[in-house]
User: Fold these one by one.
Assistant:
Number 1:
Amino acid sequence: MSVIQLENVSRAFTVTSRTGLRRTKREVRAVDNLSFTVGRGEVVGYIGPNGAGKSTTIKMLTGILVPSGGSIRVAGVDPSRNRMKLAKRIGVVFGQRTTLWWDLPLKDSFAVLQKMYGVSRARHAENLATFVELLDLGDLLDVPVRQLSLGQRMRGDIAAALLHDPEIVYLDEPTIGLDIISKARLREFLAQVNKDRQTTIILTTHDLDDIEALCSRVMVIDHGHKVYDGTLTGLRSSQSAPRTLVVDLAASLPPITIDGATVTKVDGPRQYLTFPTTTSAAPLVAQIAATYPLQDLTIAEPTIESVIARIYANPAPVTD
Ligand SMILES: Nc1ncnc2c1ncn2[C@@H]1O[C@H](COP(=O)(O)OP(=O)(O)OP(=O)(O)O)[C@@H](O)[C@H]1O
Ligand SMILES: [Mg+2]
């Protein structure tokens, strides 16, 4: 069952730029003919380079922005027409800015949200206890939001977005600026929430470790177009980035020659060979072992960063 549906959605902005005395108007198509559906309980990574249209999509999904064309259904309703109704069913975190009240202690912000969303006292207390424990918020509840560190505030923001039991949560760069420990903790928390509550999560991030840790599905957007939609494994193989064979020989030798792989670097007795993803490594290894004094060997898969860099550089059309 799909909880989010986009059909041929576009959003254009008119951007005015000024050179000297001349003003020119230009239309930017931030999102261009975008279609996708998301099922209940899915955790989808929504990635793309700066200016690709990610935040614009999220804003349309919350109803803050009205599409210039196409149709959107979230939890069965049109977000821009039923923004208030939808607000109870979704949670949003924009990592770049807080939704909490700057001067209020965290717990007072939470209390305001309880009233705003009409959450029962019992349910609020129950959720608060869970989030305080999982996000380690105990010492922070009495601290005004302005005094919290970035990572502390983000934990507060995430709790705030989830206190009313939303079915769908949009997270726009929730780990931006956080240290490794805080990132790991946040990922664990989100995985737990998804598992316990079947919350649907759309996660926008520039940190591909977030995607690896959380998302069974990833969508790549570029210039407002969807350029990939599938699994992370599929993303890796779709770009057929070469794999690397790291060969340790018994001695320093000139670059070795074998069929089907090319030496790209020699570092003493260690040589690096690249070979296509489509080729099996086994015959290469057999060839090297038969011809050279092979001592050890590892195969390095292309990093997800290198795969995505290739997609951004050379997007392939998506077939739905
Ligand atoms: N309110 C606006 N007025 C004019 N142009 C806008 C507005 N909001 C977004 N844009 C333009 O739309 C395009 C997409 O912006 P968007 O913020 O959706 O990108 P993004 O994928 O979230 O990028 P980032 O990774 O930098 O956050 C950009 O070219 C941006 O300049
Ligand atoms: Mg953005």
Number 2:
Amino acid sequence: MSLPPCPACQSPYSYEDQGRLVCPECAHEWMPGESAADEHAAVVDANGNTLADGDTVSVIKDLKLKGGGGVVKVGTKVKNIRLVDGDHNIDCKVDGLGALKLKSEFVKKV
Ligand SMILES: [Zn+2]
């Protein structure tokens, strides 16, 4: 199998269905040959709202930082986010914790 991973959630379990590619994990559908690199996959929050650079979001669950760096508490407001590629798709600064990366599925737009 050499199907590309899902451009929305990077799941490797995409399959082909009637000429389209389908992701069983997030239900995203796309056309083969559509390049994930050209089209910036939309970054959406926990409610499915599209996020953009400069947005303010609030964290919806306690997030432990790797390496014992502390915890981002639920309800923490994060201003001026920057969208980046990768598993953790939000680059930001949190008061008291400094620069860190979050997953968009654990935040909501405020
Ligand atoms: Zn997916």
